[in-house]
Amino acid sequence: MRWPGVVEYYRDHLPVGDAEAVTLLEGNTPLIEAPRLARKIGIDARLFLKYEAMNPTSSFKDRGMTVAMTMARAEGASAVICASTGNTSASAAAYAARAGLKSFVIIPHGKIAIGKLSQAVMHGAQVVEIDGNFDDALRIVRAVAEQRGVTVVNSTNPYRLQGQKTASFEICDALGGPPDYHVLPVGNAGNISAYWMGYKEYRDAGVISELPKMMGFQAEGAAPIVHGHPIEDPETLATAIRIGNPVGWKTAEAARDESGGTIEMVTDGQIIDAYKLLASTEGIFAEPASAATIAGLRSLARADAIEAKTVVVCTLTGHGLKDPSNAIEVCAEPCRVPADLDAVLEVMGL
Ligand code: F0G
Q1: Is the distance from the beta carbon of residue 87 to the nearest atom of ligand 1 less than 6 Å?
Q2: Does the beta carbon of 318 lie inside 6 Å of ligand 1?
Q3: What is the pLDDT of residues 333-346, one digit of tens each?
Q4: Is the torsion defined by CA of 121, 20, 208, 173 positive or negative?
Q5: pTM
Q6: How confident is the model over 161-209, as pLDDT tens digits?
Q7: How many whole angstroms from 187 Cα to the centroid of ligand 1?
Q8: Ligand 1: does its nearest atom lie under 6 Å from the Cβ of 317?
Q9: Residues in contact with 60: Cβ distance below 8 Å, sequence separation at least 6, in sequence order
Q10: Distance 261 CA to ligand 1 centre (A)
């Protein structure tokens, strides 16, 4: 079968009627088993990585964007707008181009990984940088939408979560059932809410009979849900999840509580260690925010919070190539020698 994209494949589970899909054939991403990483982390469980970097713009946002843009076009929108820490803007710009719609993106100046910014500008979005953070950008976006009637494609748009829930379907379809634990990063708290909705819908449809525990991780400097109050100046090197007042706060808490899961935090140091461990142990390159899941799983393992003989899925939300500056910074610089065999052999230590 030729994969038709998320809207066509899961149309019966999506509120899209017979709208013509705006698609880049997103979804159907690999669910990669990671036994070496499981051993290194010290869990006696089968560990799978849902590698969402393999979507067309290299993040999970494309699942939501195909549905949001399909409906924006069907409903006659002429322009879309979003606030973003980077990935949403990249995806919105690409899908708007595909749909023939104008796109505006409002982003925090200096806090967007270079790969993401390059995507937004290449796909023709009008990019506006503000001297503020994501929460400020979203506030402005909502006001623009109200005053000018432009369609918001942040996760305040319910079609976004509808699309993102399809990742749960894919995982259950691939494993023949749900995992015991699902670990993912939490920023604006849309994705954890979407996954939970997907699992519950598959249960209600009789496709699965159990539900996973939802385990979310925020970055220590941007952990409003963990602290129980908004964070005025969120700070983390995982810029994708640098958010102080998430839109999906309540639904994320519901996912945590209904599933018997948890939402905790990891430090930037733990994120960087996990980022390197994942890339060097399994050959999988994910951006720092995605590595927060691996850091989180490690801290769960240390606390003995993962039962033996279970199945764990970690979502890797975005590609490491989006944010190469972090990678270069945290690894040893390549050494430079003259173009000479002996010199090369010497530094190789062979
Ligand atoms: N991981 C990555 C790579 C992200 O880009 C985001 C969110 C998250 C995790 C968190 O997901 O917000 O649903 O809890 N990025 C948004 C953006 C905020 O603008 O690209 P969430």
Answers
A1: yes
A2: yes
A3: 889 999 999 999 99
A4: negative
A5: 0.97
A6: 999 999 999 999 999 999 999 999 999 999 999 999 999 999 999 999 9
A7: 5
A8: yes
A9: 52, 87, 164, 167, 191, 315, 317, 318
A10: 20
